[in-house]
Design a protein that fits this description.
Blueprint: E1 9-10, E2 19-29, E3 35-45, E4 52-55, E5 60-66, E6 69-70, E7 76-79, E8 82-85, E9 93-102, E10 112-116, E11 119-123, E12 142-152, E13 158-161, E14 164-170, E15 175-187, E16 193-196, E17 198-206, E18 212-220, H1 228-245, E19 253-259, E20 266-267, E21 272-276, H2 289-304, E22 313-314, H3 320-338, H4 341-361, E23 372-373, H5 382-415, E24 419-420, H6 422-433, H7 442-445, E25 451-459, E26 464-472, E27 485-487, E28 490-492, E29 503-504, E30 507-509, E31 512-515, E32 519-524, E33 532-534, E34 544-546, H8 551-560, H9 564-582, H10 593-609, H11 615-622, H12 627-633, H13 639-656, H14 658-667, H15 678-697, H16 701-709, H17 713-726, H18 731-741, H19 746-757, H20 764-773, H21 782-795, H22 797-800, H23 806-819, H24 823-830, H25 841-855, H26 861-869
């Protein structure tokens, strides 16, 4: 909590390490209060004569020896950030031996070695390993690892570390030890151990290359049944990476551990993934459909890192998206291949537009490869992850699946066992395909979302139709050069048939065009009537498309288009236009807002009546653009007006379609009873989307029915949410019954807390303040903090932006108190203020006043950096 003024780290300053570590032997004497770590490092000097500097934080140095000789005090220097060993001067190689003491139980940052319940665990990415022992803590230092864990057998019966287990021994005094070996060159951020009383589910399989592999999923305690679904997901991920990417697993065991206390979602440590329990534990009594889907996707993501991140790792943290963006792309494809491609795309674009676009337009905007940072933990953002994945998706579109796969094979082959850069990635794709795609690198260098203005014209005398596409730089980066933009588009004639491809001045891609210049013109000739254009099908590029369209045209896209994403997108645009017009924003091409609302309503009515439409697709269409999407679409956001417009429109639509909503809700009851197959999940998603609207107009009757009838956690949560959010009769009783039933189940408790914290009303803040003062509050558990404070700050605009500024003050105060416990969690809460520059003057003034006390406080580097980027 010291350094608020540390200078930034710059990409341009990158230098290879002077000293590298080739082999590591670690011996841990594990105990909760105080653990001892003995490290033997084989070091090689690549810059003769340079000093040996090791990172180390909050370590008590007990012993130090160089090449077997204990060092005298004047032969090294030790400060709060590390150790410099003077005695190595001139040596080309040496062996350093250190013994340090660390304090796991006092470690509330959950970085380094820490405790969660009765377990001892580690979290090292990005720079946590230096809190375990002295090391050259940077990803371009890759070593082979031997890890010996020693502990009391009764307290720590299971001892896991990365790699394969090579030995276990009883030590005779009630203690035992296990030795693990990871032969693959691995940076220290991928180191892990887990020790304690754990149970597992397990499956032995044979990899596509014939390797025998044991898959284990572990959890604290003696009941591992809730890990069963995650175990299945591990196997599906492994098989999918074999078949889609030709990537095999490379150790004899793949261990996954679920932890109740974990700052992030999950971590891809080599051979020993450690997960937030919410992405592992699930059964139908305690987990919702969304939980199951989340588990499969996060398990896939961390598994896929074994190649994209671990076998090929990062040269430096500026390249973070090289592993995260690529791995998100891979996990998105995994879900798309296993479930519905259209629905997955809709979900991903919804997130990208609502949150990443806002991030990219807000005070915390940064390029996918930033030029500098102070605290790398602040850069695990939607931009690095989701925009990074979109750039890889654009590459995939441009090359097509077969060439992309050849490029990936080349990337893995050329960089295996090494640390790579984004340049290496695009060089491999270019070399393997003969297509120079290094121009994609420009997407990584600038912040902001490009705009594509579309001008259409039809000459009815000649039958010529023209689209002029003009790329404009992002509003916040006005000088940016045009970026390569893949475009998929279709034109439909009056009968709803797609027209052939146009003549154009762009470059061809497998099923579209690559726009490289600021302006492109596409022409169709000989048309008998003006066609209906659909641009950016499948959301091929992460851009803002500006093509004013009257409501009838948007509604017609829903009818004629075959791309599910484009149909959903047309409806979202229509709803967005109506919502903005209702909030007194100017909207091009909309015309009369009542007529537009009628067109939207008619389209929704048609979808509700269409029993052949995919129910999950209809559910996606019922979900109106959320607050973040609305705020992102306007120049100056009046939070109250946007919340009110959205509330008003859903009430109006619910009123008009009440009968249809009720009919679908009732009719889907039987199908919704099924298990976790896609059809049953789809039935539930439509049923519950219908319920959310219905409960606004039926006094909660349908929700009470579902509450009494609920057959799974998905149904119980849908009913509870509907009851609490409209404060229907019976809501308080349902809340108490639910809380009591699951008081001992932290993950389920988090769910009802989040429901309470997201009630769309200013008064939800009062409920949240009561929760923070009550017995559920646990500031050392990141899930609990997110469920209560994070839900309010990020998912409850009515309360966060409430007119008296109390929402801002509450969140700012939480940032300050959390910062002393877990700076990463605190910094993420502060992110709720990123949109501040574009809020109306009163909202901005209230938020700045709320943040003022933080500015004079002693802050972590994490919070200090973000605060410094928010306007003061
Ligand atoms: N490598 C990250 C975990 C991580 C994030 C470690 C930040 C240290 C700091 C992991 O692969 C990851 O990306 N996890 C995501 C979930 C994923 C499915 C997007 C997470 O934890 O949110
Ligand atoms: Zn990741």
């Amino acid at each position: 909590m010291t350094d608020q003024v540390s200078p930034p780290i710059r990409l341009l300053d990158y230098r290879p390490p002077a000293w590298t570590i080739t082999d590591v032997a670690l011996v841990f004497e594990l105990e909760r209060e105080s653990s001892v770590v003995e490290a033997t490092l084989a070091l090689r000097c690549d810059e003769p004569g340079s000093a040996l500097r090791l990172d180390g934080e909050e370590l008590e140095l007990l012993a130090i020896a160089l090449d077997g000789r204990p060092l005298a005090a004047e032969e090294f220097a030790h400060d709060a950030t590390g150790l410099v060993v003077h005695a190595t001067r001139g040596a080309a190689a040496c062996t350093l031996h250190t013994v340090v003491r660390v304090k796991p139980a006092a470690n509330t940052r959950l970085e380094g070695l820490y405790t969660s319940g009765s377990l001892l665990l580690t979290q090292c990415e990005a720079e946590g390993f230096r809190r375990i022992t002295f090391f050259v803590d940077r990803p371009d230092v890759q070593a082979r690892w031997r890890t010996t864990l020693r502990a009391e057998r009764a307290r720590y019966p299971v001892l896991l570390a990365g790699g394969d287990r090579v030995a276990e021994r009883d030590l005779g005094d009630g203690r035992h030890e296990a030795e693990w070996h990871n032969p693959h060159p691995t940076p220290c951020y991928l180191f892990a151990l887990a020790a304690g009383p754990m149970a597992r589910v397990s499956k032995a399989i044979t990899g596509a290359d014939g390797r025998a592999i044991e898959l284990n999923v572990w959890v604290e305690g003696d009941d591992a049944e809730p890990c069963r679904y995650a175990l299945g997901a591990v196997e599906r991920a492994l098989r999918w990476d074999e078949s889609r990417f030709g990537r095999c697993y490379d150790l004899g065991v793949f261990n996954v551990v679920a932890a109740q206390d974990f700052t992030m979602g999950a971590m891809e440590n080599k051979g020993l993934n450690i997960f937030n329990a919410r992405y592992i534990l699930a059964d139908e009594r305690t987990a919702t459909d969304a939980d199951f889907m989340g588990i499969e996707s996060v398990v896939g993501h961390e598994y896929f890192h074994n190649w994209s991140g671990n076998r090929v790792t990062l040269r430096d943290w500026f390249q973070l998206s090289l592993k995260e963006g690529l791995t998100v792309f891979r996990d998105q494809e995994f879900t798309a291949d296993l479930h519905s491609r259209d629905l997955k795309r809709i979900d991903d674009v919804r997130l990208l537009r609502a949150r990443q676009f806002a991030e990219d337009a807000g005070a915390l905007a940064h390029p996918v490869r930033p030029a500098e940072y102070r605290e790398i933990n602040n850069f695990y953002t939607l931009t690095i992850y989701e925009k990074g994945a979109e750039i890889v998706r654009m590459l995939h579109s441009r090359l097509g699946e077969a060439a992309f796969r050849a490029g990936m094979d080349r990337y893995f082959a050329d960089n295996d066992g090494r640390s790579a850069t984004l340049e290496d990635f695009y060089a491999a794709h270019s070399a393997a395909t003969g297509i120079d795609c290094t121009d994609m690198l420009a997407w990584y260098a600038q912040a902001g979302t490009p705009v594509l203005d579309v001008e259409r014209s039809f000459d009815s005398s000649t039958g010529e139709y023209t689209l002029v596409l003009r790329q404009r730089p992002p509003a916040n980066v006005p000088a940016a050069a045009p970026l390569p933009v893949p475009m998929r588009l279709a034109l439909y004639d009056a009968a709803g048939h797609a027209l052939p491809a146009p003549s154009h001045d762009a470059e061809a891609m497998p099923d579209g065009l690559l726009l490289r210049h600021a302006t492109h013109t596409l022409r169709w000739r000989g048309l008998s009537s003006e066609p209906l254009p659909v641009l950016n099908r499948g959301f091929a590029a992460p851009i803002r498309l500006r093509m004013p369209m009257p409501p009838e045209e948007r509604a017609r896209i829903v009818q004629v288009e075959s791309d599910g994403f484009a149909r959903w997108d047309a409806l979202q645009h229509l709803a967005l236009d109506v919502l903005l017009a209702r909030a007194d924003e100017p909207v091009d091409g909309l015309g009369d807002v009542d007529a537009a609302e009628n067109a939207l309503s008619a389209a929704i009515g048609a979808l509700l009546a269409d029993t052949h439409a995919h129910p999950a697709f209809v559910a996606e269409c019922l979900a109106l653009p959320d607050f973040d999407t609305l705020a992102d679409a306007v120049a100056v956001a009046d939070p109250g007006a946007l919340v009110a417009a959205r509330e008003r429109l859903s009430l109006a639509l619910a009123t008009v379609h009440r009968a249809a909503l009720q009919a679908r809700f009732d009719a889907l009851r039987v199908e919704a009873a099924g298990g976790l197959d896609d059809a049953a999940m789809a039935a539930r998603s439509l049923r519950h989307a219908a319920l959310a609207w219905l409960s606004k107009v039926d006094g909660g009757a349908a929700a009470r029915g579902l509450w009494d009838d609920a057959r799974s956690m998905t149904e119980r949560m849908a009913a509870l949410r509907a009851l609490l959010h409209v404060q229907a009769a019976g809501a308080a009783a349902a809340r108490e019954a639910f809380a009591a039933e699951f008081a001992d189940h932290a993950l389920v408790t988090d769910k009802w807390l989040a429901v309470v914290a997201t009630r769309p009303a200013a008064e939800a803040l009062d409920d949240v303040e009561a929760l923070v003062a009550g017995p559920c509050w646990n500031p050392t558990n990141p899930n609990r903090v997110r469920a209560i404070v994070g839900s309010l700050a990020r998912l409850n605009p009515a309360a966060f932006h409430r007119g008296d500024g109390a929402g801002y003050r509450f969140v700012a105060a939480q940032v300050q108190s959390m910062d002393a416990i877990n700076p990463q969690v605190a910094a993420r809460l502060l992110g709720a203020f990123e949109g501040l520059p574009r809020w109306t003057a009163p909202a901005r003034a209230a938020a700045l006043a709320a943040l003022a006390p933080l500015r004079s406080a002693t802050l972590s580097r994490d919070v200090a950096e973000l605060l410094g980027r928010l306007p003061g």
